[in-house]
Amino acid sequence: MTDQRDAGQPDPRQQPFVVDTELLSEDQISGLVDEYCTRYHGLNESESPLGERNRVLAAVRRGELVVWFDPVENTAGLGAPA
């Protein structure tokens, strides 16, 4: 038998997807928030990149930032919802 899938279509199992924060521990969410703050605010030479931590955490709680998981890279990070 031949594979009937279109070779031009990406494998959906390799596409990043949003993880429900209810499935994550507070430590995991905290780590993602810290990473987000240091990545975005640390690069602009901010003296206190974690100073935005509470605002970022609130944005996660409101759904303005979501947790994306990339199964190819096996990494997670915060980003805007799709």
Helical/strand content category = alpha+beta
The helix/strand series, from N terminus to C terminus, equals EHHEE
Question: What's the total number of strands?
Answer: 3
DSSP helix fraction: 25-40%
Assign an overall shape: elongated
Radius of gyration: 16 Å
Q: Low-confidence stretches at least 5 residues in length (pLDDT < 50)?
A: none
Strand line-up of the largest beta sheet: 1-2-3
Mean pLDDT over all positions: 87
Strand % is 15-25%
Oligomer: single chain
Which properties best describe this structure?
82 residues; elongated; alpha+beta; 3-stranded antiparallel beta sheet
Protein described:
This protein is of the alpha+beta class. The protein is 33% helix and 16% strand. It has a 3-stranded antiparallel sheet. A hairpin with a 4-residue loop joins strand 2 (66-70) and strand 3. Helix 1 (26-42) crosses helix 2. The model has no long low-confidence stretch (mean pLDDT 87).
